[in-house]
Amino acid sequence: MKRSRQSKAAGTRRNRAAEDCLDVMIETPRGSRNKFKYDEQFARFRLDKVLPAGAVFPYDFGFVPGTRADDGDPIDVLLLMDAPAFVGCLVPARLVGVIEAEQVEENGDKTENDRLIALAQDAHDYADVKTIHDINPNLIKELGHFFVSYHAMRKSRFKVLGTRGPKYAWGLVEKATQNYQKP
Length: 183
What we know:
The protein is α+β, with helices and mostly antiparallel strands and 183 residues long. The chain has a single domain, classed as Alpha-Beta Complex (Inorganic Pyrophosphatase), CATH 3.90.80. The chain is 18% helix and 34% strand.
């Protein structure tokens, strides 16, 4: 599937000369106990929750602007890069795959809640990574464990179902872009 340089949905911009890149908006920087969330109504970031002592986000966490995932929020992205960014930073990134997951709320509601995995386009530490399968499997397992623990603190269950490569991840972005465009 050939990628256009500019998606029709505002904000889902493919950038620079790289066809396989998209912009990721950082909500929560690596190392933060504070979980921020973008509030569309006020066009601002707000503090969503505070993680307990010792728990921090292992990498920058954000979303692809101009998308709507099955859970109603923009599609989630865990962004690997050499140093943390800041809340609201727009980072050109390469999709390398997805951690497929299912989330079950306290009331029993079940939702797909996949986590796209991307690399900052200019990251030096991850320059050789082309797909999620090039990342150390222990790191992928630890990232899954972080999300399981994070959701357990929120009284929901997060179950990692597996991993898929960049082609599948792009399919999720395209679907989420179409969902965003629906009235």
